[in-house]
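pls ignore typos typing on phone
flavin mononucleotide + seq
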Amino acid sequence: MKVYVPADAAARALGSDDVAAAVQAEATRRGLDLTLVRNGSRGMVWLEPLVEVERDGVRLAYGPATAADVAAILDGTSAKALGPTDDLPWMKKQTRLTFARVGLIDPLDMAHYRAEGGLVGLERALALPPTEIVQAVIDSGLRGRGGAGFPTGIKWKTVAEAKADQKYIVCNADEGDSGTFADRMLMEGDPFHLIEGMIIAGIAVGATRGYVYIRSEYPDAIRVMRAAVGIGRKAGLLGPSVLGSAYAFDMEIRVGAGAYVCGEETSLLNSLEGKRGVVRAKPPLPALEGFLGKPTVVNNVISLATVPVIFEKGAAFYRDFGLGRSRGTIPLQIAGNVRHGGLFEVAFGMGLGEIVNDIGGGTASGRPVKAVQVGGPLGAYFPSSLFDTPTCYESFASAEGLIGHAGIVVFDDTADMLKQARFAMEFCAIESCGKCTPCRIGAVRGVETIDRIARGDTAAIPLLTDLCNTMKAGSLCALGGFTPYPVMSALTHFPDDFARAKEAAE
Amino acid sequence: MPVADVLEPHARQTLDDILRAHAADEGPLLPILHDIQAAFGHVPQAVVPVIVEALNLGKAEVHGVISFYHDFRAEPAGRSVVKLCRAEACQAMGGDHLAHHAERKLGVGFHETRADGKVTLEPVYCLGLCACAPAAMVNGRLVGRLDEAAVDRIATEVLA
Ligand SMILES: Cc1cc2nc3c(=O)[nH]c(=O)nc-3n(C[C@H](O)[C@H](O)[C@H](O)COP(=O)(O)O)c2cc1C
Ligand code: FES
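k done
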């Protein structure tokens, strides 16, 4: 008998370790021949801890489970039974490419990884000349999933063509945006997949060293990735000869230190070099002068972990999903005040309303949805009148917003949008690296200006708009440059929240 | 409390071991500071001259790095550290209200340590538990779907 109890951080935060211990204890008590697998999460966070029992090759789901449910789950009589996991609507409606194995396998079992299609992408890539690897990534239409949406293959081409004695692959696993956890889930649930993507990137551009910069708020991801790198070295995946080939590639896990701005790629590179995480002026591009001044690919976890899929299934296969210039799939992270929160991977193009209401099931509180923030603390708040916006880079940009890392945070009608706008400015003030004035000073002024509006001073509203324009135009990076998105969207779409204060003051 | 500007021999040994372990690293300063904080509970002033010497950096540069990052503490934390997420997804689930509740129950404000040294309360901006918000980290252990009762249990645990 095989039982799966996730060791994903969200599952653990909801008590999965207790459940796993209860499974083990019950098996011993009954003298059962039971294999307990600590898998990643299947992504249905509202059902975590989600226990799966494999019977006749079918995985049956039970959740949300507590230790007290374990005996009945093993008997097959639990009231928490949900049926076969793969038949659940949440699973059936997805196109799981990047997340194909997350939650399915034992994350640190290389044999299990291989059995489920792992390393096929790398083996195919190894048979190609590097220029064709780069071309396949260009052909796939893959764009960076860290936020900016820059075509991954084009970035690789720049690094590949740069001449240098040493090049680097740096994986951005800083994932600071509220509402996002795709990077975390992938690293915890399928770490070899990310390693495989980084190796392919290394071969493509001629880099032999890689770093994963993981935020310190992710202790589980750090632990799993470090273990996976160790296993990868022993298995000959990493080291002087990748899978016996002529290519060398090795990598290391580095830990951030609680600075949001270090997710910005140049700040991240400074941090990795042991400096303060201040943003560098561009040019030079990191592709040409990155880590320690050498040509460097900086890519998000999901961008890199999608690369093996492109080689396993083909660039055209991947490109055929999506909408417009947004190709392939996007792992949506549905969070906040939502009934069914979790990770949902789907082709680009699904409407925001469908995601929130149909997939997410509306609010957790049962109250009406008021606003949805997409793309983290630098992303806009959308009212339900914009729910027909399809998830693709261009549609979100024309709606004065961004997809970013695809975090979707739902708020019910108790949310105060003036307060949310104030928080956006406050967060920018706390996290500003301090290098440019529009961001450092602008954010502080922004908080003050919103406080004036809250006191009923409507004359401060045009000041806020001006300030946002200054921050947008003059900031060195998107921290100061995009903070106006949540602020202005709150002001534009929810003007009542900025006027109500006045009535109260009068 | 007098500021120790020289490390006692045992601490110096620990620091030397840490520096040696990272001698071959590219960009070793953050890994070193993390290890120092793990070993000493904070980053004592007295390590700075030793790091300056070992890495051939300026004193101001090392200070600048330590002060830039929220994680590195100049002072020891309380016996327990409670980090409560204050970011948007947790706000959407009543995080602000819960934060006030936590301050009351723990008897300490954010960025503060109780006078009896039992607990330090800190804000954190997202733990990646946004689909089971509100979330916290208590002495390194993650907790999701927090409510007042859960905060009360945490308070009882850390104030015991
Ligand atoms: C303030 C700020 C924070 C960012 N945080 C992240 C992050 O946590 N993870 C990430 O991958 N990209 C982040 N980015 C975007 C990166 O600068 C960069 O575009 C990205 O790592 C490139 O990888 P990609 O092309 O694969 O998306 C951030 C940008 C800014 C301005
Ligand atoms: S916003 Fe609180 S865990 Fe992500």
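Chain A has a mean pLDDT of 97. The radius of gyration of chain A is 23 Å. more later
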